[in-house]
Amino acid sequence: MFRYRSAQSIHTMGVTSVIIKNDTDTSIKLQEGTAGVFLTTTEIKPKKSYTLNINPDATYREYACLTMPDNTIVQDIFSSDDVIELSSITISSDGKKFTLLYNKDEVKH
């Protein structure tokens, strides 16, 4: 089995992982969807992280992060194609606006 590891990412043939870090004081709901239909995957508690695993050969998926309890979307939706390129995603807030910071890892290519 082909496998390599970097500081934040793990890539195993058939599975790609990205770490989603919640650096806010608000719980974040992660939703996964396709064709505009989204289901909640998990809730990421404040100051915690979640490892999202995807199969790059599976159907294209989109992901949305929503603040809780009001379900306001955080910035843009990201896709399974984005996950393949990223080592981590950090959710941050300046107290007024939530932001997704995309972190690339050169080793992932």
Structure write-up:
By secondary structure, this protein is mainly beta. The protein has a single domain (3-103), classed as Immunoglobulin-like (Sandwich). Helices cover 6% and strands 53% of the residues. The chain contains 1 helix and 10 strands. The protein has one helix spanning 80-85, and strands at 3-5, 10-12, 15-22, 28-34, 37-44, 49-54, 62-67, 78-79, 86-93, 98-104. Strands 1, 2, 3, 6, 9 and 10 form a 6-stranded mixed beta sheet that branches. It has a 4-stranded antiparallel beta sheet with strand order 5-4-7-8. A hairpin with a 2-residue loop joins strand 2 and strand 3 (15-22). The two termini are 17 Å apart.
Q: Can you tag this structure with a few keywords?
A:
6% helix, mainly beta, six-stranded mixed β-sheet, 1 helix, Immunoglobulin-like, 53% strand, four-stranded antiparallel β-sheet, disordered N terminus
